[in-house]
Design goal:
Strands 1-2 form a two-stranded antiparallel sheet. By secondary structure, the protein is mainly alpha-helical. It is built from four helices and two strands. Helix 2 packs across helix 4 (54-66). The radius of gyration is 14 Å and the shape is globular. It has helices at 9-20, 24-38, 42-50, 54-66; strands at 69-72, 77-80.
């Protein structure tokens, strides 16, 4: 069975470098976006590439699909309403 490998090694290195600059929340969301773009097998591929758990990526996907974001003036950030 052939594993999913949609990006060349340079793109993968760029993605890993970029992800290493993100905080935990942003890295989780970035991974979720990339995994969703790839479709089937994307979660496992991005999990291996960025060295984060599949569960973390699934949490990121849930966060992005809730669409309950609001701007918190007290800290100047967008937050997810739970």
């Amino acid at each position: 069975m052939k594993s999913l490998n949609p990006y060349n090694s340079d793109a993968e290195a760029d993605m890993q470098l970029f992800a290493s600059t993100l905080n935990e929340r942003d890295k989780r969301r970035y991974a979720a976006l990339e995994a969703r773009k790839l479709g089937y097998g994307g979660i496992a591929y991005i999990s291996r590439l960025l060295n984060i758990s599949t569960k973390t990526i699934q949490v990121g996907i849930e966060e992005l699909t809730k669409k309950s974001w609001f701007f918190d003036k007290s800290c100047g950030n967008y937050k997810l309403e739970l």
